[in-house]
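As a warm-up, study this chain.
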Amino acid sequence: MPFGRNSNSLALVASGALIIILAFGSTLRYQAFAHSVLPHYSHGDAAKYFLYAYNLTNFGVYSHTGMALLPADTDKAAAREILKPDAIITPGYPLYLSLFLGGEYEKSQSDAARIGQVLLSSLTILLAYAAFSPIGRLYGLGVAALTALSPHLVNMNLFLLTETLFCFLLMAFAWTMSRVNMNSRLLLFVLMGLLLAMATMTRPWIQAYLFVFIGYLFLSKLRFSVGQMILVFVGAAIVTAPWLVRNTMVLGQAADSSQLVSSIHHGMYPNMMYEEQSESLGYAYRADPMGPKLGKSLDVTLAEIERRANAEPYKYAKWYLVGKIQSVLSWKIIAGADAIFVYHVEGSPYFDEPEFYLSAYFMEKTHGILMVLALLGTLIVWLPRKLQRQSADRIFFLRAISLLVLYFLGMHMVVAPYPRYSIPMRPILYALALYPIFLVVRISGIREKLNDIGGAVLARTRSFSGHVQEKT
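Now compare it with the structure written out below.
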């Protein structure tokens, strides 16, 4: 029996390898949750997300006013006088948290939300394989393995932050893209819109990718129909319309742009430092005497960036064109407690368990190479299809995720390029990093040689088994 790509033997081996990868990745995630020692109370962004969810669940108001908890038995009318509705943060992650809240806060509620994140993060490993295995089973296994090992993806589950949910939704969207062609069922196009909009409601930087993706569908050689494109919009509208209507009715505006202006301000400092002061790393806006004035008005912020860029053109050109990409793709979380933790932890398996610190060490040492390969892969997928030896629908998928990465990098050349923001993109970045290697293996004929070796090993194994059975 041939040991080729479509053989039952290879499918069986791939399934076994996937089970091992999924089991190991899930174990890392659960053990990290079970044995990490966290602060008693959330702070920073995590506190904001929690307050939105708590106020929405108990009082029906989407607000984080005061950054303090009202007693759950507070009269709702009185609470609504205190809490002021806002739209500073999109509701995707607070809605997820609200599934686990109700009444007075108890630690078991946040623990349940974290367990939910462990499950979503484990499913993300499976989605990584499902999305990329149609290109090649070994390729899909490689993407799944790197996703499983990533300490950033493991540790994000410890905190009440958007990254785990966003990564899951992003990979679910990628999976739908990997299955689409011009003959796909219409519901698949609606599902793509739904998932992309759900991701947008979790991390809004991706919102304009909807228009990039629709434009790509229009220009694609797969000849998608106008109706199929409209269905993507319909799916997105089902999710986003209630939020936009709520904002318009309650606040008098469809969206709040303050977060965008603030992020542009926070990202204006070369190397994420104020005047190269190392103590300001990650928080340069706090050290800047003009900091309180900036970030409030887009015009004022852009004018100050222009003034500083005119004074030091090379420094700012290098920062905006190269430095920001290096920053957002870097390993260490700049505005965080540690290289692999957003917030301080008092204990973690990564401190003393071999399988944890060895996997983290491997991922850290290969991170730079993987990110360089990911940038290379982002460009390679645009080579002629015949050279890549891929079908039209697979080329469509690879170029769609390339556009997503280019869009992501373009966005973070404008806003703050904190490395934490690239964590949900890691499975996609890993896929693009492995693609040049996959392509070399395919074009050079190494894969066929590996298949021949695998077939020979399998034949010898079966012969040996049969010989043993005859003797017994």
